Structure formats: structure tokens, C-alpha cells
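Tutorial, part two.
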Amino acid sequence: MPCNMILVEDSDLVVEKLTKLLEPLKNVNIEARASDGYTAVKLIKELHPDYVILDISLKYGHGIKVLEDISSMEQKPYVIVLSNLNYQYYRDKCKSLGAMHFFDKAMEFEKVYDILNERTNEHFTEKEYCG
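Running the prediction step on this input gives:
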């Protein structure tokens, strides 16, 4: 059974790029997309994804608030922040709220693939489960 993921991103272009980037990962299923913070938290609570790729700057709401809400959940997804707001303040804040990685959207986009490929292959060969 593949790992489920939610993309929290308000740019259609970035979602398209992420979808193409992650398509070769057979063990990852993009289950849903949210373009605002409220919908993101609602979907995370309903779907309990294994992974969330989260942008900080959203059209409505803020990724930091989404992370704050996730940090209080019993079942937390593995969160990868992918943002253009590449400032140390945001990196530190996201890490303190439980984000496992913070990547610069302009310079480190492909690292999302590398992390997911490594994690999902590792879990499927060793442990037979996601996350």
C-alpha cells in the first residue's frame, strides 16, 4: 500500500511541477491538495496522510499556522516545508514546530524527491509500512 501525501500549495504551477517530480515514486500517492491553511488542516485531520509538503506563504492562511495545528495532533504526518521564504527565522520556526525538512523552492526543489524516495524505499523494504 503506497504512502499517502497532501500537497499544501496555492500555486498551480508548483503543484504541477511537484506532481511530475514525484510521479516516478511508486510508493507515494498524492491523495489531496489544499491551497489554503484551513483546508489543509481539515484534510490532514480527515485523511491522516503519511506526508505533507507544505508551503509557508499561502493565498489564505499561513503554513506556520498549519504546522502549529499539526503539532497538537496525536497522529502527525512527516512534514516537508518547501518555500520561497528562505529565511533563518522561518527555518527555525518550522523545525521547532515539527517540520522534518525545510527546502528552498528555488534552489532545493529536487531534494523533496530524494527524501521521499529514500524514506519510502527504506520503509517498504525494511518495515512494510509508511511514515
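The chain has one domain: 3-123. In part three we will examine how such features are distributed along the chain.
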